[in-house]
TrEMBL record, chain A:
It catalyses: glutathione(out) + ATP + H2O = glutathione(in) + ADP + phosphate + H(+). This is Glutathione import ATP-binding protein GsiA. Its EC number is 7.4.2.10. Residues 271-294 are annotated as: Disordered. InterPro entries: AAA+_ATPase (IPR003593), ABC_transp_ATP-bind (IPR050319), ABC_transporter-like_ATP-bd (IPR003439), ABC_transporter-like_CS (IPR017871), Oligopep_ABC_C (IPR013563), P-loop_NTPase (IPR027417). It comes from Roseibium aestuarii. It is found in: Cell inner membrane. Keywords: ATP-binding, Cell inner membrane, Cell membrane, Hydrolase, Membrane, Nucleotide-binding, Repeat, Translocase, Transport. It is a peripheral membrane protein. Part of the ABC transporter complex GsiABCD involved in glutathione import. Responsible for energy coupling to the transport system.
From TrEMBL, chain B:
The lineage of its organism: Bacteria, Pseudomonadati, Pseudomonadota, Alphaproteobacteria, Hyphomicrobiales. It comes from the Bacteria. It holds the Pfam family BPD_transp_1. Its main location: membrane. Keywords: Cell membrane, Membrane, Transmembrane, Transmembrane helix, Transport. It is found in: Cell membrane. SUPFAM superfamilies: MetI-like. It is a multi-pass membrane protein. Belongs to the binding-protein-dependent transport system permease family. This is ABC transporter permease. Residues 95-307 form the ABC transmembrane type-1 domain.
TrEMBL record, chain C:
SUPFAM superfamilies: MetI-like (SSF161098). The chain crosses the membrane at residues 33-56, 97-124, 144-170, 216-241, 261-283. This is ABC transporter permease. InterPro entries: BP-dependent_transpt_permease (IPR050366), MetI-like (IPR000515), MetI-like_sf (IPR035906), OppC_N (IPR025966). Residues 95-284 form the ABC transmembrane type-1 domain. It holds the Pfam family OppC_N. PANTHER family: OLIGOPEPTIDE TRANSPORT SYSTEM PERMEASE PROTEIN APPC, PEPTIDE ABC TRANSPORTER PERMEASE PROTEIN. It is found in: Cell membrane. Belongs to the binding-protein-dependent transport system permease family. It is a multi-pass membrane protein. Keywords: Cell membrane, Membrane, Transmembrane, Transmembrane helix, Transport. It comes from Roseibium aestuarii.
Length: 350, 317, 295
């Protein structure tokens, strides 16, 4: 193995195979809204409000939800681009802030952004963009690492290394962004709508590349998207967010089979199907999500939920296991026999 | 809208305070003692100290500033060292003349600038556009104090049609709307109008050109709207920016006419200012600059509020 | 897996794709107006620098008999001024101070203004508030008024003119720099660089500067024309360069009294200011369109 090869292999596993790579608990981010005469803080956007989840080693966790539900904010919290207001992140057993520093975390976690053009410095050749991180960390032969990675993501370094971003197609640029993320030899890569802006055919190629890289390099992905088909294709587990909260999480087959939370159900109902026999009967979700400045009380979805009852407005449901699957959790009073929701009682009676 | 107005007014306050601090400090960054101009050369130490105390110059700077501002707010800007008259009176009389000049120049400049800019924007990349662009860039490049001299050479010295100096027969005196006075107004106001013509024309050309290339205009044209009606839509979209540029230019004309007023001996604030400079009449200098700058701040405020009133996009935020 | 071929490749010099600036240069050269204006400005600067070697008359040598001679007078191709000094020599020598005081403040303001704007735009928060609100206060003065106010307080002189004009042009450049930096700051590649562990200074150097200096530079060149006119204007008012130095604004002022005797000679210094400022404006326009081209 050559020198450059070793530099791109992931850092050593510390906690063993059963230690989750990421344990995020109670993540909170509130953005102040300033207005009025003295520019005082008059309101708070509850962008991410108490989000907890785990990412197991080697898996791909898909995060889905409408725009504005806090998906991207969660991603940026995971990599420390914005500061946590509350909550903790444990990376392979090491707590951020006490066991490892932000700088150390960032060596292990990298991110690919949605806008392939805005995420590359237009004045740098793609070689320089990819080599920036390795150079910064004083690795040997950053240009070699970059060329190697470009080859790995399917861009012949001899042809592409010295091009500028505007000379590449969207798919090629996204490959560069993937190479740049890999240049830091991360163990977790966050893909924030990374294929959403690509043409369908290019999207498939990039998804396949991501799958290959995951196997080759033993990577773990957090895959954020609003495209349920893509999420199904790439993810092992899916996390559904609504207005800054987790409403449902579970293995991909389980969730795509039965949606426990009415919000998840309506999301899937809106998913276009190729099969004419499989047309959705359910009415699509009406209206826009409520303003995250003043999120609804109780279950945040109750304002748009067909099954909403008094308890939904007054009490916040907790994430709890659904049916027989211990990995499938949802936050809905209908699945909690003790909630007092009429449908929950019925379910319990059955 | 009301909240915007109030916020904008409150925002002006620190700017106005900053402006007054700069004007106050002008006297103190001046080399030498502010009193040397009026102090007898053979003044003794005691006399100097007494003078200093009389003018409040023995107090610490912040105290002096507070006293100065306190008086300025009540309209007392001190006394001119050269004439002994209250600075406020001098400035007020001069600003009236400057305003006359600035308004006349605006009346000349804005219609011409708007027209040229609109035509150039409408006929973008044609010969007309290029001619207007060339004219506009010449307008913004010309040193207007020189243009004033050239116009004097042509219309006063060579042709003898127009007077070259003052605001009326016999120099300054009171302004009157008669032919003799208006003749004095022509050369300085035309000179002053050239730069804003260029700036307004350039801005409007770019604005109109951009709007014409926007999707909504093409949609209007595609659905068969008559060109004149399309034009109405374009004008409505160009109006807020065009108005704000003109408003700012009016402010610039008042503050920037100093050189022109010097060329034409026009008894305005600029002329007053250059006299104050020559006689090192610091209270007069300070007062004139303060009044002009505050006028400019007010002008900006009016432009912003007016723009908010006609531009629906600003109202909402 | 062997990577020897790749690594052997690295030893060879790599072909650099044509960079951004060479593209700008190529486009600029295709603009005949901008190129002509650049040549004129360069000629004016060169003539001013090498004035002593051009075989001109002594620009300071006065003569009572040869006062205010017209253009084309034998021995004085552009006539003489009110003290009988050679106009041609004085106009060329005059370029030295005029161009110096007309251009240097913009360069200084570019340095200070960009720095302030970059800091304000990149750091944000209260640092931004302090810098930009201060800038707002200076913005409350029309530039002519501010230049005259500071110059008249400081008194005449070259250094004082440089100082006051620099102060005049820092605020507009800082504003442009701040907004350019703030918009680049919000782009994903800055976040990507931060995620790679880059410190603020490194990110500014590698990722911000290259993307904001261009627009700031173009904006600064558009100010040179105004600065020239203002600098000469200060001398015209008697608060810039001191006599007997040849300087276009000052010459225009002293020759004003001669407009009844020899009007066209009196207009010459102003014509020089006009030509220079026009060329600077056209040059800046050419640069702007050469740099705005997006692929």
């Amino acid at each position: 193995m050559s020198k450059t090869e070793t530099d791109t292999t992931p850092a050593a596993d510390r906690g063993g195979p059963h230690q989750p790579l990421i344990i995020a608990s109670g993540l909170k981010k509130h953005f102040p809204v300033r207005s009025g005469l003295l520019n005082r803080q008059t309101a708070t956007v509850h962008a991410v409000d108490g989000v907890s989840f785990e990412v197991k080693k080697g898996e791909t966790l898909g995060i889905v939800g409408e725009s504005g539900c806090g998906k991207s904010t969660t991603a940026r919290l995971l990599i420390g681009l914005i500061e946590l207001d509350d909550g903790s992140i444990i990376f392979d057993g090491d707590k951020l802030g006490s066991d490892i520093s932000l700088k150390e975390l960032r060596r292990g976690v990298q991110m690919v952004f949605q806008d392939s053009y805005a995420s590359l410095n237009p004045r740098l050749t793609i070689l320089d963009s990819v080599a920036f991180g390795p150079k910064l960390h004083g690795l040997k032969d950053p240009a070699g690492i970059a060329r190697n990675l470009l080859g790995r993501v399917g861009l012949d370094p001899d042809r592409f290394a010295h091009r500028y971003p505007h000379e590449l197609s969207g798919g090629q640029r996204q490959r560069v962004n993937i190479a740049r993320a890999l240049a830091m030899s991360p163990r977790l890569v966050i893909l924030d709508e990374a294929v959403s802006a690509l043409d369908k055919s290019v999207e498939a190629q990039v998804l396949n590349l991501l799958n290959d890289l995951r196997e080759e390099l033993g990577l773990t992905y957090v895959f954020i998207s609003h495209d349920l088909n893509v999420v199904r294709y790439i993810s092992d587990r899916v996390l559904v967010m609504y207005l800054g909260e987790v409403v449902e999480v579970g293995p991909v087959e389980s969730i795509y089979e039965t949606q426990a939370h009415p919000y998840t159900a309506s999301l899937f109902a809106a998913m276009p199907s190729m099969d004419p026999d499989n047309r959705t009967e359910e009415p699509p979700l009406a209206g826009d999500p409520p303003n995250p400045i003043n999120p609804p009380s109780g279950c945040r979805f109750h304002t748009r939920c067909r099954f909403a009852e008094g308890v939904c407005a007054s009490r916040k449901p907790k994430l709890a296991t659904i049916g027989g699957d211990a990995d499938h959790l949802a936050a809905c009073h209908m699945h909690d026999a003790a909630s007092g929701h009429s449908l929950a009682l019925k379910e319990a009676a059955e | 809208m009301f909240a915007y107005l109030v916020r904008r007014l409150i925002y002006v306050l620190p700017v106005a305070i900053g402006v007054s601090i700069i004007c106050f400090l002008l006297v103190h960054i001046a080399p030498g003692d502010p009193l040397t101009a009026i102090m007898p050369v053979d003044a003794t130490q005691e006399e100097q100290a007494a003078m200093r105390a009389a003018y409040g110059l023995d107090k610490p700077l912040p105290v002096q500033y507070a006293i100065w501002v306190g008086k300025a707010v009540t309209g007392d800007l001190g006394k001119s060292i050269a004439t002994g008259r209250p600075v406020a009176d001098e400035v007020f009389a001069a600003v009236k003349n400057s305003l006359l000049l600035a308004f006349t120049a605006s009346v000349i400049a804005f219609p011409i600038g708007l027209f040229l800019g609109f035509v150039a924007g409408y006929f973008r990349d044609t010969l007309i556009d290029r001619a207007v662009t060339a004219f506009a860039i010449t307008g913004v490049s010309v040193p207007n104090y020189w243009l004033g001299i050239v116009l004097v050479i042509i219309f006063s010295v060579t042709l003898g049609w127009l007077p070259s100096m003052g605001a009326g027969p016999g120099g300054s005196g009171a302004w009157a709307w008669d032919f003799a006075h208006i003749k004095h107004l022509i050369l300085p106001s035309v000179t002053l109008a050239v730069v804003p013509i260029g700036i307004v024309a350039r801005t409007v050309r770019a604005l109109v050109g951009d709007i014409f290339s926007m999707d909504f205009v093409q949609a209007l044209q595609a659905k068969g709207m008559r060109p004149l009606d399309v034009l109405r839509h374009v004008i409505r979209n160009a109006a807020p920016t065009a108005l704000s540029v003109m408003g700012l230019q009016l402010g610039y004309l008042l503050g920037g006419s100093i050189l022109i007023e010097t060329v034409f001996n026009w008894p305005g604030s600029g002329f007053l200012l250059s006299n104050a400079i020559f006689q090192r009449d610091l209270p007069l200098l300070q007062g004139t600059i303060l009044v002009l700058a505050l006028f400019f701040v007010t002008m900006n405020l009016i432009v912003d509020v007016a723009q908010a009133a006609i531009d629906p996009r600003i109202k909402r935020s | 897996m062997t990577l020897t071929a790749d690594q052997a490749d690295l030893a060879e010099p790599v072909r650099k794709a044509p960079g951004y600036w060479s593209g700008v240069f190529r486009r600029f050269l295709k603009d005949p107006v901008a190129v002509t204006c650049t040549v004129i400005v360069l000629l004016l600067i060169l003539a001013a620098i090498f004035a002593p070697y051009l075989g001109l008359n002594d620009p300071y040598k006065a003569s009572m008999i040869k006062r205010l001679k017209p253009i084309g007078y034998p021995g004085f191709p552009l006539g003489t001024d009110e003290q009988g000094r050679d106009m041609l020599a004085r106009l060329i020598y005059g370029g030295r101070l005029t161009l110096f005081v007309g251009l240097v403040p913009v360069v200084l303001a570019f340095v200070f203004g960009s720095t302030l704007g970059l800091i304000a735009g990149y750091v944000g928060g209260w640092v931004n508030t302090v810098i930009m609100r201060t800038v707002d206060i200076f913005f409350a003065f029309p530039s002519v008024l501010l230049a005259i106010a500071i110059s008249s307080a400081l008194g005449a002189g070259i250094v004082n003119s440089l100082v006051s004009l620099t102060i005049v042009f820092i605020p507009p450049i800082a504003r442009v720099a701040e907004s350019a930096t703030a918009s680049v700051r919000s782009l994903d590649y800055i976040d990507a660089a931060r995620a790679s562990g880059g410190g603020a200074l490194t990110i500014v150097r590698v990722h911000v500067l290259g993307n904001v200096l261009g627009p700031i530079f173009v904006y600064a060149t558009s100010l040179t024309s105004v600065c020239m006119i203002l600098a000469a204007g200060l001398s015209f008012l008697g608060i810039g360069v001191r006599p007997p130095e040849p300087e276009w604004g000052l010459m225009l002022n002293t020759l004003r009294t001669a407009i009844y005797v020899n009007p066209w000679v009196a207009a010459l210094p102003g014509l020089m200011i006009f030509i220079t400022s026009l060329c600077l404006n056209l040059l800046s326009d050419g640069l702007r369109s050469a740099m705005n081209v997006k692929d």
